[in-house]
């Protein structure tokens, strides 16, 4: 199958409305992200940020425009190739009624216990190993996790999957300032050489990003570096 170790993103004149909705959630939007660039997307609630990330994963078909990865429209990619290319931290993390191990490896079946434990330490989740270790049962009938712990499970999953394109939807939402800083540095470290598109409401960490876009009503209304904005 097609594999790639870098990802260049090209979005051209993208238009998307949800079924039955008159207003476009993404409206004539274009974006070019060279391989290896780290980009932040800011914007008010409802401005279309999550929709844009979902369109990149082909969760929806746009009415107009194209999205290409490495110069190939994603509509031409196989499901498997697209999945291996993209690592996602969605806005809402789903935990399955399964072990901690299975909850981490669902997108990274090749990861061994040593890697999983290492990633739990890096994301500050080592406490979850107390008791049953990687066999701890999560979800229904098992251990419930705090919002911040769920966020970091999402980040751990994405980093274990390790695709060349990382899409992060509010990766540090609900984390205290110290933990947020730890996660931002981790993302920067693991994201080196990868293309990273991060949606955020937070100002912390923006100085680590190469470029910042501000979204409003499905369009970018401002763009620049941290210093320019
Ligand atoms: P937030 O910062 O609150 O996460 P966002 O910028 O991610 O907001 P989106 O979730 O992309 O915003 O939503 C963009 C627009 O599309 C909003 O008007 C929202 O109400 C609408 N929308 C989102 N999901 C759906 C859906 N599944 N069906 C219909 N409309 C939707
Ligand atoms: Mg959102």
TrEMBL record:
Residue ranges occupied by any ABC transporter domain in the UniProt entry: 9-229
Record's subcellular location? Cell inner membrane
> What does the subunit comment say?
Forms a heterodimer with CydD.
Recorded family membership: Belongs to the ABC transporter superfamily. Cysteine exporter (TC 3.A.1.129.1) family.
This one is known as Glutathione/L-cysteine transport system ATP-binding/permease protein CydC
What is the native source organism of this protein? Biostraticola tofi
| Phylogenetic placement of the source organism | Bacteria, Pseudomonadati, Pseudomonadota, Gammaproteobacteria, Enterobacterales
């Amino acid at each position: 199958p097609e594999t790639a170790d870098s990802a260049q993103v090209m979005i051209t004149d993208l238009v998307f409305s949800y079924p039955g909705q008159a207003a476009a959630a993404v409206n004539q939007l274009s974006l070019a992200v060279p391989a290896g660039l780290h980009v932040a997307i800011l914007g008010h609630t409802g401005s279309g940020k999550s929709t844009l990330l979902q369109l990149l994963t082909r969760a929806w078909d746009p009415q107009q425009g194209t999205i290409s990865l490495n110069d190939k429209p994603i509509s031409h990619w196989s499901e498997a190739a697209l999945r291996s290319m993209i690592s996602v931290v969605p806005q809402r993390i789903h935990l399955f009624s399964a072990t901690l191990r299975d909850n981490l490896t669902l997108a990274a079946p090749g990861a061994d216990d040593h890697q999983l434990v290492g990633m739990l330490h890096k994301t500050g989740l080592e406490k979850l190993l107390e008791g049953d270790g990687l066999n701890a049962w999560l979800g229904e009938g098992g251990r419930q996790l705090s919002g911040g712990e769920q966020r970091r499970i999402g980040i751990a999953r994405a980093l274990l999957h390790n695709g060349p394109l990382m899409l992060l939807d509010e990766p540090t939402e609900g984390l205290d300032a110290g933990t947020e800083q730890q996660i931002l540095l981790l993302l920067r470290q693991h994201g080196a050489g990868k293309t990273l598109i991060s949606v955020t409401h937070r100002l912390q960490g923006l100085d680590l990003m190469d470029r910042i876009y501000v979204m409003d009503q499905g369009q970018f209304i401002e763009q620049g570096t941290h210093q320019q904005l």
